[in-house]
Design a protein that fits this description.
Blueprint lengths: L2 H17 L4 H11 L3 H6 L1 H5 L2 H6 L3 E10 L5 E12 L5 E7 L5 H17 L5 E7 L8 H15 L8 E4 L6 H15 L20 H18 L9 E4 L4 H12 L3 E7 L2 E4 L6 H10 L7 H4 L4 E4 L10 E3 L9 H9 L4 E3 L8 H9 L3 E3 L1 H4 L2 H14 L6 H25 L6 H19 L4
Parallel strand pairs: 3-4, 3-5, 6-7, 6-10, 10-11, 11-12
Antiparallel strand pairs: 1-2, 2-4, 7-8, 8-9
Helix pairs in contact: 1-2, 2-6, 6-18, 7-8, 9-10, 9-16, 9-17, 10-11, 13-14, 16-17, 17-18
The chain binds NADPH dihydro-nicotinamide-adenine-dinucleotide phosphate.
NADPH dihydro-nicotinamide-adenine-dinucleotide phosphate binds next to α10.
């Protein structure tokens, strides 16, 4: 990389860090993208001349708001709500809402920043955004969750619209929460605007396959990476972290493709079932009863539950981190590689620390970073918007086929661009450059805005 290019990128990084103090996850996400852009700036000096990278790193709009609500004992609580509308060069802001006590501006900005490039990779007309709250839905009654969602939407609605900003789910936000949010939006605006939220119920504008999409899409991406190496998931052993939406449908698709998942987790510990995880039981515990994963072993006596255990210690051929950011540390990546892991598909966003990523890349295993591997969720959200706009609803098979094609195309784009820019087999470089080029070209075409 020419010296002036690396100096420019370092200067931008320093400026972003200084301008956004303490937002360590955002810094990490920016650093990862900028580390890949040297060859792009060397080839296209117009991006630097027009300060495209500096503009991409600054959100178009950031909204922070108070969310007061009343619990079942009539006690008043105050949470903080966020929506970061990061980039609309390719379409309306699109990205999920996360309800988790760890949420603060730095988490929402890292997720929103990743979302810009992920959404570009899907090839669909969607910009990047993200939102959420430090509200913890765990242990709350349905009534409490509903009152929180109504209060959250009472502020957020004024910033949304099917052509403006279209949220969806993420950690702690599933079908129940999207229902409460949509109901309140409809009530306040007096508009049945289906396209304003995705992940809706199937009876009122939702899309088949949206629930399954992130997990299925991640598995499709891994299958493509393995295919490029003459391998497949069939007969392979996998480990999945988390036991939420992404984890469950990752397990389902791995099983369908002839693989076996032997472990999954939650934030308290993990279960290990050498016979293969009983997915119907996990669905019952997590989706229907909203219980903890440790209850699995009460029904499957041969399986083990390891309280506070590290799921990455379980030997596997393929790892699917599907819980949260920075869950695979350098030492975990080392363990996975030493145990013979040949592929990693990130269902979660930024689940591997920079040290872990380096270990995977140095070991030359098939490593699919989240912004490419888990793009199937948002892609299917965009398909939900298409169905809403045309007042149509597609079959499961058709929607799944569209998802599968999109994931194959994302894989192909990452693979080819990595090669073109001198890093064959490196999907981090491929995803970051392919996503960046789409957004940067659109921004260049629209002038300084
Ligand atoms: P869910 O809320 O359905 O499930 C999250 C799972 O991860 C739970 O098992 C949860 O355990 C675990 N988890 C969450 N936070 C932590 C933490 N800090 N430490 C350990 N475990 C944790 O969320 P999703 O499945 O929707 O999301 C999982 C990941 O996938 C996130 O990174 C999200 O950003 C990403 N993603 C999701 C998409 C979607 O369509 N839903 C799309 C693209 C990416 P516990 O119950 O103990 O908290």
């Amino acid at each position: 990389m020419p010296r002036d290019v690396s100096t420019t990128l370092q200067t931008i990084c320093d400026e972003v860090f200084a301008r956004n103090p303490g937002e360590v996850e955002f810094h990490q996400a920016v650093r990862e993208v900028l580390d890949c852009l040297g060859p792009v700036l060397a080839r296209y000096p117009e991006f630097a001349q027009n300060k495209i990278i500096r503009r991409i790193c600054e959100p178009e709009r950031q909204i922070i708001f108070r969310v007061p609500w009343v619990d079942d004992n009539n006690e008043v609580h105050i949470n903080r709500g966020f929506r970061v509308e990061f980039n609309s060069a390719l379409g309306p802001y699109k990205g999920g809402l996360r309800f988790h006590p760890s949420v603060y501006l730095g988490i929402i900005k890292f997720l929103g920043f990743e979302q810009i490039f992920k959404n570009a990779l899907t090839g669909l007309p969607i910009g990047g955004g993200k939102g959420g709250s430090d509200f913890d839905p765990k242990g709350k009654s349905d009534g409490e969750v509903m009152r929180f969602c109504q209060s959250f939407m009472t502020e957020l609605y004024r910033h949304l619209g099917e052509h403006t900003d279209v949220p969806a789910g993420d950690i702690g936000v599933g079908g129940r929460e999207i229902g409460f949010l949509f109901g309140q939006y409809k009530r306040i605006t007096n508009r049945y605007e289906s396209g304003v939220l995705t992940g809706k119920g199937l009876d009122w504008g939702g899309s088949l396959v949206r629930t399954e999409a992130t997990g299925y899409g991640t598995v499709y991406f891994v299958e493509e990476m393995l295919k490029a190496r003459g391998a497949s998931l069939e007969g392979k052993t996998s480990v999945v972290s988390g036991s939420g939406n992404v984890a469950i449908y990752t397990i389902e698709k791995v099983n369908e493709l002839g693989g076996k998942v032997v472990a999954c987790s939650d934030s308290n510990g993990f279960i290990h079932d050498e016979q293969g995880i009983d997915l119907d039981l996990v669905k019952l515990l997590k989706e229907v009863q909203r219980r903890r994963i440790k209850e699995y072993v009460e029904h499957r006596k041969h399986a083990k539950y390891i309280e506070k255990g590290n799921v990455w210690d379980v030997p596997c051929d393929v790892a699917f981190p599907s819980a949260t950011e920075n869950e695979i540390l350098g030492k975990d990546a080392k363990t996975l590689v030493e145990n013979g892991c040949i592929a990693v598909g990130e269902g979660a966003n930024m689940p591997t620390t920079p040290e872990g990523v380096k270990i995977f890349l140095d070991a030359k295993i098939a490593y699919g970073p989240g912004k490419a591997a888990n793009a199937g969720g948002v892609a299917t959200s965009a398909l939900e918007m298409q169905q809403n706009a045309s007042r149509d609803s597609w079959t499961f098979e058709h929607t799944d086929q569209r998802l599968h094609e999109i994931m194959k195309n994302i894989h192909q784009a990452c693979y080819e661009v990595a090669d073109e820019f001198g890093s064959p087999g490196n999907y981090v470089v491929g995803a970051n450059i392919a996503g960046f080029l789409k957004v940067a070209r659109a921004m260049l075409g629209m002038g300084v805005i």
